[in-house]
Amino acid sequence: MLNRIACLMMLCACLWPLSAFAQDAESAPMPEPDEIAQWVEQWIPEELDRETAEATLRDAGENWGELATALEGTAAEPLDLPDMLWLLNNAPHLDRLELRAGMLTENLALARQWCSSDGYEQGSEFFRRYILNYRIDDEPVTNWRPELFARYGSLQLSELPPEQAASRLVERVARGFRIVERGYFGNLADPLAIDNARAGTDRELSLLCAAVLRSQGWATRFTRENMTGTSWVEVYGGDRMAYDAEAWFPVYPQAPEKSGLTSQALELCGGRIAVVTAGDAFGREQVTGRYTTLAGVQPGFSRDGRPLADFEHWTISAWYEGSYVPLDDLGYPTADADYPLTLGPGVEDTSGDTYYLGAPGDYRLQAGQRYPGGTVQVLTRDFSVLPADLLALELDIATPLDLPDEALRERTIAAEIPQEFNWLSTGVQLFFIHDDAEPSVRTALLVQEFDRREDITFHSLEWQPRPEDWEQPEDYQPELERDVLRVSEKDEKPVVILLIDGELRLYLRGYNLNVADWIRRQLGEAATAAEDSA
């Protein structure tokens, strides 16, 4: 009997963990299915790039359901779903957080009515960007299209030439509109709010005119001159089924009767144009050459004699009414590629390192460098251009010799130094960590004089990268370069480090002509002492 009880107790003991495991498995929540992934698989055909669609919906956060509802509402029409998906994929992030399904589906329905045998080709990028697009510039997202369509649809313009028809419509929009100047930097109003108030800035009037034109079936884009801030509208007057990059013509809310005349832009801008861009909130392109003669400039940068191919900390400013105005729009593509129409002529062309400015004109090239400790260096070069000039602008960002001490310590060494490296706290320790390529070779020539001095312990260390599959062994000992001096493979070698009685005095990465003078300065020696002794 005792044996039977003992066996039963052992069996219960064995079964108890299994029972507990089963209870835990039942009580543990099952992982929720990925709703977005499941929705994409159900509603988005494979040929429409499900991966991008899923990323778009995830970017919308909690608002993804509104975007999904808008897409579901287009499933019945084979061309509507790709159009709606294009619109959402290209929408800015903040728009995705607030777009509503009702607005999106109504916007598509009203835009689609302009597609016919003699209208736009639904599904083309031209139709999508300049008719379907719900954004003109950087205004808030609103459902402006149905109301503007109703307000201005009574004008009989279909029998007029394009320039005259667009001019007549813009004249109607601008009639009685009051221009106000804001004394502060603030958000743009949306087209309906602008039209309801019948007042706004010049930019807002241009925005409203572009929205009204688009609501009536005109392909439009917002146009801005960067130096003066003057804005107007470009309207497409060519064959709607066969896009022609040269068929855009200007319409001026300030002077509707001058629409179609590119020369009027020069007059509106006070007789000089620097950079003109056209487009919308999804993308812009430079169209300066349509309104003025051009000159090309090719900025080139170097530091201490070494070319800086990827240097980005620069700008070009235009001299305008007694001060220099930054030309922020220089980064946009040129119209040669019909950006952002991917099928336009010249789409393979690139402007390279050439930037185009209105000529003649006076400009300034500015470049800057920020050093540790908050030290900022700004270099400038003033220049003028004439029509058809191609000017190479070389600017050497020579590092100042009189940088403050905090700017010479780009990194720090380990706060706690292992016992085996306590010798770093004694005397003058100068490290030159390098590889076998430029600019290490040139730096070696600058620091070699300190290799021969008895009062300096000079260390020339060749950096050896770790293998990709390297793993730290159990008996790992700290390494001087990596763990103490904190030199990494991401550093721009060579690296020069100076310690005086344990105090970090220099930590410099890369080639610099002033390195020897800075070492002497930290040693308390005159910059010319070594030259005099030689």
From the structure above, extract its key features.
534 residues, alpha+beta, C8orf32 fold, five-stranded antiparallel sheet, four-stranded mixed sheet, 19 strands, elongated, disordered C terminus
Q: Can you walk through the features of this model?
A:
The chain has 534 residues and is an alpha+beta fold. Among the domains are: 178 residues, C8orf32 fold, CATH 3.10.620; 120 residues, Glutaredoxin (3-Layer(aba) Sandwich). The chain is 31% helix and 20% strand. It has 17 helices and 19 strands. A five-stranded antiparallel beta sheet has the order 5-4-3-6-7. Strands 8, 9, 12 and 15 form a four-stranded mixed beta sheet that branches. The protein has a four-stranded antiparallel beta sheet with strand order 11-10-13-14, with no helix packed on it. The longest helix has 26 residues. The chain is elongated and about 95 Å long. The N and C termini lie far apart (107 Å). The N terminus and C terminus are likely disordered.
Task: Please render the helix and strand layout as text.
Blueprint: H1 2-27, H2 35-43, H3 50-59, H4 64-72, H5 80-90, H6 93-96, H7 101-112, H8 125-132, H9 145-152, H10 162-174, E1 178-179, H11 191-197, E2 199-200, H12 202-215, E3 220-225, E4 231-236, E5 248-251, H13 263-268, E6 276-280, E7 283-286, E8 294-303, E9 306-307, E10 314-320, E11 323-326, E12 355-358, E13 361-370, E14 376-385, E15 390-396, E16 428-434, H14 440-447, E17 457-462, H15 480-484, E18 495-500, E19 503-509, H16 515-522, H17 529-533
Parallel strand pairs: 1-2, 8-15, 16-17
Antiparallel strand pairs: 3-4, 3-6, 4-5, 6-7, 8-9, 8-12, 10-11, 10-13, 13-14, 16-18, 18-19
Helix pairs in contact: 2-3, 3-4, 4-5, 4-7, 9-12, 10-12, 11-12
